[in-house]
Amino acid sequence: MENLHQLQDRLGKGFYVDNFYEMASLCKSLALGSTSPVPFFVMQHVFLGIAKNWEDRPLPVEEAKLVENKMMEPLIHLVKAISLNASNETIYNILDNIVATYLTA
Predict the structure, then answer these.
(1) Is the pLDDT assigned to residue 19 strictly greater than 70?
(2) Which one, out of 6, 28, 32, 55, has a CA that is 20 to 30 A from the CA of 40?
(3) What is the residue range of 21's domain?
(4) Average pLDDT score, the chain
């Protein structure tokens, strides 16, 4: 999946508003082309939610880095699990972690 590779590359570029929109767009394309769209749908909405929050209330660099530090690892873990065709249970557990982290970040 070329878009999955692009998503990995985008995650490596870090958290900033324009990148969130790029990653959300990639996630939408991945969801539309997948038989299991839920992980991509969740990531798309996480990226759009953070972008909207940051546009409405720009964060100081230190606070933005804290959000990135909390969210990055589970997102990378999810993309890697998808690329390795991990079990649905594994994917669900990672998604659960991402949503819990997003809600508290």
Answers:
(1) yes
(2) 55
(3) 2-104
(4) 94
